[in-house]
Amino acid sequence: MGVKNDAWIRRMALNKKMIEPFVDHKVREGVVSYGLSSYGYDFRLGNRFLVPCGGTGDPKNPGAAEYREVEKLSEIPPNSHVIGTSLEYFRIPENVITITQGKSTYARIGVMVNITPFEPGWEGQATISIVNVSSMPVRIYPGEGIAQILFFEGDEPPVHKYRGRYQATRDITLPDIQ
Predict the structure, then answer these.
(1) Where are the beta strands (DSSP E) in 15-73?
(2) What pTM value is reported for the model?
(3) pLDDT tens profile 25-81
(4) Who has the most CB within 10 Å: 38, 44, 71, 117?
(5) Is 142 within a domain?
(6) CATH number for position 42
(7) Does 97 map to a domain?
């Protein structure tokens, strides 16, 4: 199992719609970079967010927390988090798994990004937890880079492919334990 390069990512994005919309080069000028890189793809932050505003965070009872929906959020208060979504829609092949890391541009100002692996056969927009661990407000930029995804292709498809509750998501998705 090896990490896939830019030629493979481009081919899969163009021929199999693995990433939509797809940017086949790195965009850097005046933005937090996004697009195709040598061994990954830097995807963009969408423009809809859920901001916690009360209750208790409980993965077994998502209704215990209260959120307000915000469009065009540009700042995260100190020591807090928001939930967003990727601008891109992903279709992961059945013999591929991904690992995603937040961009160093954000890490350097105290922003941690968490995105779980995309399982073989999963598709949808990524739900993104964006955490400001610093003591100051931080700016984020919807429509610009938020994280880099790496693609790992297995030697053969797994027996167990993703058929879970987060399949084909097109919005921010809160925990769903059934």
Answers:
(1) 19-20, 26-27, 34-37, 40-44, 48-55, 65-71
(2) 0.91
(3) 999 999 999 999 999 999 999 999 999 999 998 888 878 889 999 988 889 999 999
(4) 44
(5) yes
(6) 2.70.40.10
(7) yes
